[in-house]
Amino acid sequence: MEDLFVIGGGLAGCEAAWQAAKRGLTVRLYEMRPIRPTPAHKTGNLAEIVCSNSLGSTLPNRSTGTLMHELQRLDSLLLKCAQESRVPAGHALAVDREKFSQKVQAALTACGRIQIVREEITAIPENLSILASGPLTSPALAQSISQLSGSENLYFYDAVAPIVTAESIDMTVAYWGSRFGRGEKEEGDYINCPFNSRHEYEHFVQELIAAERIPLRGFEAEITSGVQAGKGKYFEACLPIEIMAARGKDTLSYGPLRPLGLRDPRNGGRPYAVVQLRQDDLAGTYFNLVGFQTNLTHSEQARVFRLIPGLQHAVFVRYGQMHRNTYIYAPDVLKPTLQCRQIPQLFIAGQISGVEGYLSNIASGLLAGINAARYFQAKDLIQLPNTTLLGALCEYISTPNPHHFQPMSASFRLIPPFENKIRNKTDRYKAYARRSSSDLNHYLNGFNEAI
Ligand SMILES: Cc1cc2nc3c(=O)[nH]c(=O)nc-3n(C[C@H](O)[C@H](O)[C@H](O)COP(=O)(O)OP(=O)(O)OC[C@H]3O[C@@H](n4cnc5c(N)ncnc54)[C@H](O)[C@@H]3O)c2cc1C
Is residue 338 assigned to a domain? Predict the structure, then answer.
């Protein structure tokens, strides 16, 4: 029998399994795909990236950049795999999702202590385990998890953006470019589809708002009226584009379609609004529509998104879609070490633990893997300082919250401010990043052994 079970071979579960195995434990990693699919995953690959292929900005004064630095210091496998499967995306760390999964799978297989079992787990095991079954946890397991906290499961709605083939984009209309020329490639990292007039843009917005949406079913029905009014129980960081458009006709041109720093290189003109497309695979065969998560029917996506200049003949290889997400009420269930309050041999990581975003999910898996190994070895569990982004995130999700609890990504908003306020935001964030790095080093160096 293996020392540790990990349920879910996604972002958190793969990182957790590797961290525990690296510390000498034998691990059984359960992944139900491809035998039992989820509504969003497309393959049986481990660590499949389900939507945007970007893990966020690498800039040190951004929270994702700082979290990447922390993950690097803590020797994250998945960050390394992401860096090795990187595609051009300006300052963002975007990956070829297929390559990324292959690298993760190869590393887990090569490690020799991880057994990968393709099987659905329907109840929380009694031995030492890490639960990392993600936002699309299978219903039987979700039922078992709901009994954990005594409070009912929470959920919100999330959506995926469509992907088109590169060769179907009309490059006589669209053009390459990165905001303010800050790309890795000379011509720019994004394909930009410009709305050159207000009239063209407004026509698109009208069609988008009026387009047919996929009707909500069963458990989703209770919020149907809210959705129609544009006020559904969505996660604000991943709103469907049609919901955003319905908030006001300028919402998109000031939001994901803002043309700032994106002049047309052919005539120097500044478009009224721009849809950006980001490379989705290393070969540059596919591009995703940035910010275009949607719940429109497939035929309406094809019709309405072909109104975007340059996409009139777009070939869709994946349509956008919307999903339920499941997560526990972490303040009742978890300690900041990601150990379950009621069941000490159970650790919970990833989106099901109440963290949000690819990088934060990887980071929580990393901590759960380290702590499960330390628990097995009867060592004190680690709780990172709350001046680090990972420490602050774990403290946030495990602290009773008087407001409505929603999954949270690692963010500078969660860490304690300096006594002497730094007014300039860039300087403040740079100072936070420096403090995170030095406090993390100080904390790790305080142990007599390598963590
Ligand atoms: C539709 C959608 C779109 C998203 N888009 C983005 C985005 O663009 N950017 C972003 O940063 N984040 C996004 N997220 C949020 C989140 O970052 C990802 O879902 C991320 O993959 C979560 O990592 P995880 O390890 O918690 O779960 P996952 O990566 O989903 O891994 C969980 C794994 O557990 C498996 N599993 C589930 N139940 C069982 C069971 N009973 N037995 C065995 N295995 C099981 C699943 O098959 C899956 O492989 C999105 C989420 C969803 C649902």
Answer: yes
